Automatic annotation (TrEMBL):
PANTHER family: AB HYDROLASE-1 DOMAIN-CONTAINING PROTEIN (PTHR43433:SF5), HYDROLASE, ALPHA/BETA FOLD FAMILY PROTEIN (PTHR43433). Pfam families: Abhydrolase_6. It comes from the Bacteria. Gene3D superfamilies: alpha/beta hydrolase. Transmembrane segments: none annotated. Residues 32-248 form the AB hydrolase-1 domain. This is Alpha/beta hydrolase. InterPro entries: AB_hydrolase, AB_hydrolase_1, AB_hydrolase_fold. Keywords: Hydrolase.
């Protein structure tokens, strides 16, 4: 009998809600679900996913209007995305999983751990926020979508991925961005006290130059019983792209701790 190649990637479109959502599965071991950020795709966390393939079975999907999944009518809401995330777990036959989320995906990871603790083995939340007030101007497209001027156009990279992958065509990008800006102006609205409902092992990560103030990230970690906090020096909201090897190592070591 030939062993399954743990590096082989299984791709599919799954019927979730009103959408046919693009999905990838690879690796072998305990399940880890990656949740991408706003105006991102699976590609944005590729380095972190690949780093886990030798020890875990990695699942990832793209929400409507992101990556290879067509957009939907109407605005985005975290409640709807949470329903989609639960439906994805069900479609993959997963009773629970480790959750690794970035930005919007980190918010979803926290919401999932609060509302459905039985579905969550652990949480890694990178660049999460609890409410829009942490942004000086939640409608400032340049501030929210562009990294600090460090000579690397990471926002341009996401736009390139969108133009290459989106079934809606590159001209639809601004529609998605406008819907995201409306979302970020009004949601999430998480009471810090509610984070005490999270009992899964949790790692909260952010950059020390993140557009989300470090004090807010500290508040999130302090509100979750036993949560670990990691602030990466010299990095912004795009820390996973600025220090991919280090972020990948930290995630992998956190997930492997549970086995020791």
């Amino acid at each position: 009998m030939h062993e399954q190649n743990p590096q082989a990637v299984e791709t599919a479109y799954l019927s979730i809600g009103e959408s046919e959502m693009y999905s990838e599965v690879a690796g072998a071991g305990e399940p880890v679900l990656f949740l991408h950020g706003g105006f991102c795709s699976i590609e944005s966390l590729r380095a972190q996913q690949d780093a886990l393939l030798g020890d875990f079975r990695v699942f990832a999907f793209e929400r409507p209007g992101h990556g290879r999944t067509a957009d939907i009518e109407g605005d985005y809401h975290y409640a709807r995305w949470l329903t989609d995330t639960l439906a994805y777990l069900d479609a993959q036959g997963l009773s629970d999983a480790h959750i690794v989320g970035y930005s919007d995906g980190a918010i979803l990871g926290l919401l999932l751990a609060m509302a459905h603790p039985e579905r969550v083995r652990s949480v890694v939340a990178i660049g999460a926020n609890l409410d829009p007030s942490v942004f000086s101007d939640p409608s400032d497209e340049d501030a929210l979508l562009s990294p600090p001027d460090d000579g690397e156009d990471k926002d341009g990279l996401e736009r390139m991925h969108y133009a290459r992958l989106s079934p809606d065509g590159p001209e639809h990008a601004q529609t998605v961005i406008d819907k995201l800006l409306r979302l970020w102006s009004s949601e999430p609205n998480i009471d810090p006290a509610e984070l005490s409902r999270i009992h899964a092992r949790t790692l909260i990560m952010a950059g020390d130059r993140d557009l989300i103030p470090p004090a807010h990230t500290l508040q999130i970690a302090a509100a979750i019983p036993g949560a670990q906090l990691c602030i990466l020096p010299g990095t912004s909201h795009w820390l996973h792209a600025e220090r991919p090897a280090l972020v990948s190592q930290l995630i992998r070591e956190f997930l492997l701790e549970e086995r020791r």
